[in-house]
Design goal:
two-stranded parallel sheet, alpha/beta, single chain, six-stranded mixed sheet
């Protein structure tokens, strides 16, 4: 996948049209209109499938980006923020600042213990229209449960076992995976869920700590935590312990701006690991730089 070019102007025009079309609606009504899936789209089911980020004549140096959105009840405002204008600005920023061939894959993550669709996976795409097409296929289930976290680890398992990228296979260069959410990461993906959701035959479940170590060999992992009040302090500390302090960005739930944070993460990974501006030592691993 990954044909076509990203047009900021075309994406911006659709944002403007959308604002006019939904101006009279409440935020919740507009969200239901834009993200109209009421169950997982069959195309987003990843069981038995692989997503590929491939080079082409148009894109000879493909750079894979996975953006994993929390689809549980408290996080529906993030997809709305992205489609109302933040995402085109992110793409404009990273292309203008030197990433010639970004390929973006949107995925949705929920809670594998409670939700019907805890993992939904789009395709890696280069064009604005195709990125938006897959983004709007995300089913905002609005679930989650009373357990202490969500299954963000499903995004890591997907990247590890169900993606193939020319960036890694041809150039030994990592992609970037950004999760966005407001809960801790659950400690494990149960064995049964790995089989049911991915179609993989495994002998045991996957622990989050081990997944982070393994997937980090091919992907740079970051998390954007939504919520900076004292209420979230223990959650933030868990994320920092899991990924590393320099891999966790913290934003307020209200009056936040995703554009500089997400752009900074992507650009810093590209510059340091793809464009060759680092030796790859622990001290020089890509960080969030605002």
């Amino acid at each position: 996948m990954g044909s076509g070019m990203y047009s900021y102007m075309a994406a911006h025009e659709r944002v403007t049209e959308r604002k006019v079309k939904y101006a009279h609606m409440s935020e919740s009504a507009a969200k239901e209109e834009i993200f109209h899936q009421r169950h997982i789209d069959p195309d987003m089911v990843i069981k038995g499938k692989v997503r590929e980020s491939c080079d082409s004549e148009e894109h000879p140096n493909s750079f894979p980006i996975i953006i994993a959105l929390d689809t549980t009840g408290s996080m529906g405002h993030i997809p709305m923020d992205l489609i109302k204008g933040s995402f085109p600005e992110i793409m404009k920023s990273i292309i203008e600042d030197g990433i010639p061939d970004p390929q973006v894959c949107f995925i949705g993550v929920g809670d594998c213990y409670c939700d019907r669709a805890p993992i939904q996976c789009g395709q890696f795409e280069s064009s604005d229209e195709l990125m938006e097409k897959w983004f709007q296929k995300v089913y905002l289930e609005g679930g989650g449960g009373g357990n202490p976290g969500e299954s963000y680890n499903l995004a890591w398992y997907f990247a590890l076992r169900h993606t193939v990228t020319d960036a890694w296979e041809k150039r030994h260069k990592k992609g970037v995976l950004i999760t966005i959410g407001d809960e801790p990461c659950l400690a494990e993906i149960p064995q049964a869920d790995i089989t049911n959701l991915f179609g993989d035959s495994v002998q045991s479940g996957a622990m989050s700590t081990e997944l982070v170590k393994e997937v980090s060999e091919r992907w740079e992992l970051f998390h954007v935590h939504m919520g900076n009040s004292p209420y979230y302090s223990s959650v933030i500390e868990k994320w920092k312990k899991l990924l590393g302090e320099e891999r966790v960005a913290v934003l307020p739930r209200d009056n936040y701006n995703l554009i500089p944070v997400v752009s900074s993460i992507i650009l810093n990974v590209y510059r340091q690991t793809v464009a060759g501006e680092t030796t790859g030592t622990k001290e020089e691993r890509p960080k969030i730089m605002l």
